[in-house]
Amino acid sequence: MKKTFLVAAAIMLSTLASPTLKAALVVSTTTTATSSVPSADLAKENTLIARVNEIKAMDKSNLSQSDRKGLRKELRSIKTQLKSVSGGGVYLSVGAIIIIILILILIL
Description:
By secondary structure, this protein is an all-alpha fold. The chain has a domain at 63-108. The protein has four helices and no strands. α2 packs antiparallel against α3 (65-86). The protein starts with a helix and ends with a helix.
């Protein structure tokens, strides 16, 4: 009985600590990723964002259905281009974090 209680307590503590660990890992990886972005990619990203803002500012009520459809397709393609330029971050699951912590404990 005591052993199962300890296991349940360890699982609950690991699930409580995982969101803060994940947030810290995501923040640290995204800051390093953005600092190493070349200026050409940064300029491309800025032009794409400017185009998105330009489309959002448009008065779409006067456009035909095919024009609105073209704008939606353009926004989708810009979204995929921005994802490829920014690269995203590294996300670790709870299990991976636990394994990393256990390996670090065994090594140290």
